[in-house]
Amino acid sequence: MITQKVLDLTLLLIVIGIPVVLIGLHNMSNPALRLPPIPTIQELIRVYKLGARKRLSQNFLLNQAAIQKLVNCAGDLKGCSVCETLSSAYTYIGKNMRIFHGDVLKFNMTDTFTNVEKRDWHDEPPDVHIIGNLPFNISTPLIILWLRQISQRQGPWSYGRTRLTLTFQKEVGERMVADIMDKQRSRLSIMCQHLCDVKVKHIIPGKVFVPAPKVDVSVVTFTPLRMPRITQPYHIVEKVVRHTFHYRQKYCKRGLETLFPPDLSHLCGEMLDKADIDPTTRPQQLSIDEFDRLCSIYSSYCEEYRGLFEYYYRDQHPNSVELIATAGD
Ligand SMILES: *[C@@H]1O[C@H](CO)[C@@H](O)[C@H](O)[C@H]1NC(C)=O
Ligand SMILES: *[C@@H]1O[C@H](CO)[C@@H](O)[C@H](O)[C@H]1NC(C)=O
């Protein structure tokens, strides 16, 4: 019990000291995740002065039933290694647990799961799960970083198609799963869906967290696809999708134009034509297949016109036009 208390204290202090930091790795020999006793919210607030710690923008999950529901969203964890970035005061303390302290945005998980058998990408997912309740300002940059690693099969994805169960503000979860024509459809929808089977599994009411955020929270699961739905490398997809959604309320042509410097502006119309897309389509009306075609054509232009990928329309970069002028060699 003393050990338990000390560990809880250490963990919580670490979480408070450096908000992004806790990574616990559990080997789940027991399929029924047994949760240790959780201190009451009043105790925590008193001991850790959570109420005064607004600057952390961190929302702890202390409600045992809610934690259990979040964990259940990950599916069957029997025999799995579970990497938890759950920054709840709760943590499962067992002899099969290792704790790493580091910034989750910088932590390299490539060699972390020593007991896990690597699987071929086309095989079933490996016995690793990543489960996390991170501060909202961390969870979105983190999923963007992890999507890149998924596309490059690095970090936790060097083990195969490692699954994720993560919390986001409800509307961020809605954007991630938004289908074609949905008004929530955005850059995040395409970035998530072209690489993963992504689902909102559960909504946790905001009031369950401490301190309570103003919004409810989505539990989102990600299972990397065997075949990405857009075949180009991540940096190409990221750029084309970002520019397409620059002007959400306008025709897709308007955003796509910003991919090209003035002297190559004709390529935008040509690209839409080759991709068989009506230039007056709105960004949220584009299917992932259409993005796939746009990305392939843009990628071929980048090969043809040196410097095109580096071109950024807001830079007053005197060399960009010069670089483009050398295209073709
Ligand atoms: C998230 O917010 C916390 C607290 O405001 C801040 O310390 C941290 O640097 C932020 N992180 C990012 C990646 O924006
Ligand atoms: C992570 O570690 C692996 C193996 O140790 C290494 O190959 C890889 O380059 C590292 N990734 C980053 C982003 O540092």
Give the helices and strands, then pairings:
Blueprint: H1 2-17, E1 22-27, H2 41-48, E2 60-61, H3 64-73, E3 81-84, E4 97-101, E5 128-132, H4 136-152, E6 163-169, H5 170-177, H6 187-193, E7 196-204, E8 209-210, E9 217-224, H7 234-244, H8 252-257, H9 266-274, H10 288-304, H11 318-325
Parallel strand pairs: 3-5, 5-6
Antiparallel strand pairs: 1-3, 1-4, 2-8, 6-9, 7-9
Side by side, the strands of the main sheet go 4-1-3-5-6-9-7
Uncertain regions spanning at least 5 consecutive residues? 1-23, 30-35, 87-95, 318-329
User: What assembly state would you assign to the polypeptide chains in this entry?
Assistant: single chain
Question: Based on the structure given, which CATH architecture of the largest domain is correct?
Answer: 3-Layer(aba) Sandwich
CATH topology of the largest domain: Rossmann fold
Mean pLDDT: 80
Q: CATH top level of the largest domain?
A: Alpha Beta
Enzyme class: transferase
Family: Belongs to the class I-like SAM-binding methyltransferase superfamily. rRNA adenine N(6)-methyltransferase family.
GO molecular function: mitochondrial transcription factor activity; RNA binding; rRNA (adenine-N6,N6-)-dimethyltransferase activity
Protein name: rRNA adenine N(6)-methyltransferase
